[in-house]
Amino acid sequence: MDTQNKTVLTAETLVNAPIEKVWELWTTPKHIMEWNNLSDEWHNTKIENDLRVGGRFLFAMALKNGSFNFDFLGTYDEVKTNALITYTLDDGRKSSIIFAGANPVKVTENFEANLTDSMEMQQNFCQAVLDRFKYYTELNTR
Question: Which of 110, 132, 135, 134 is nearest to 123 (CA)?
């Protein structure tokens, strides 16, 4: 990941579940639809995920009250099952998600920050989504 002159933020969580389950829930659209939110005020309106090198993804997120929405679009650069996903967003920023361990699994997301939103807001947003993923995965692994 070329990070010259870019601010890279990191969020991480420890998920108490087998790596195969963590990978499945991270990459499957029907599951992404359930956990990929900042809070209960948000939801996904559309999820597309072609998880392969060169494949595209679209995560359309919106506030449930309809006051704000955005699309998270990009292309996968590297996919190593149960280990690593790297991608480039349509605005050129790069991210990596590292899956370490078999059970529990440490999920670490490194992402280039944008220049318009505060670093704290971006960090908190990413961490909140990871925390929701942890909760959803552990709930669906019992």
Answer: 110
